[in-house]
Design a protein that fits this description.
With about 350 residues, the chain is α/β, with parallel strands linked by helices. The chain starts with 15 loop residues before the first strand and ends in a 21-residue tail after the last strand. Helices cover about 30% and strands about 20% of the residues. The longest helix is centred in the middle third of the chain and has 17 residues.
Amino acid sequence: MTVADLPLRPREDARELLRTVDLTKHFRLGGFLSSRYLHGVDGINLSIHEDEIVALVGESGSGKSTIARLIAGVYKPTAGDILHRGQSVKGLRSRREVLEYRGRVPMVFQDPYGSLSPVYQVSHGIMRALKLHRPDLSRRGRQDEAERLLEAVGLVPARDFLGKYPYQLSGGQRQRIGFAQALACRPELILADEPVSMLDVSVRIGVLNLMATLRRRERISFLYITHDIASARYVADRLVVMYAGHVAESGPVEDVLAHPKHPYTQLLLSAVPDPRAPISLPEKTEVQEPPRVINPGEGCRFRARCPYAIEECSRVTPLLRLLRPEHEAACHVATSDMDDRHEVAKPAHI
């Protein structure tokens, strides 16, 4: 039996691993008395189940990495909560509890060149993680486990890699070391923050296949953060589209990409060469970057770029609405019975 043949839990049988509840992070700009705040993320409700890969997609500045750092405990939320298997992460007080949570939900960072110390051999980071999170293992047990982990991420012969320094490895090999260090913690959910964006195109598919393999063989879920909607289609089960700190759209990946409801999702898809995607946007669509959301008022944050904006978009912040089974969008003009080609109302001006 190959890895691809290993069964996944049916969605209805998979338990929820992690949920964010109105998760919010604001960053103060200026001095201590400043009243200017950058709204990194606002009111994010996100769930991840066992045996699931959820892709968080959006342009730079949309809040994707902020969510990952909040979940990992790097940032403290301004408001909201994070529930791990139904238990609030805010309630973790002791060092043991925090260490156990971070072992269950580790991060793999974007930069494989910066996540490994150049002065230590590959074995150092893996052994340190094993000693910290697996105190039951003997020294010999840690050595055997380190070799198993390297083999699990496709680095063979494992003994040869344990003795190498980061400068002796390629970018793809370094990123695989990052996954091996995460596996040393016996994770349930790995936060993969743009893990392929700094790799050569020729090796990206190998890392994406590694994530799919670990999901099936090690029964690990992933929050895959990316700006590349094509790679999300390749590896993910569900897609969450972020824009300027808000969720614009979410749902099963194939359904969202085949029937995009939010104009921003359509804009992302229009940049992907895919003959199966019948997406056609008006020429007047603005090609800009997400705004820096400083002390925002009410209204849709995408309205300045949206060719379909109506007057209500400037007054009322749209909430996520169920438009298809398990498929939500935060858009005033999106409806559930749209034409596949133009899935929003006709353009209007504000």
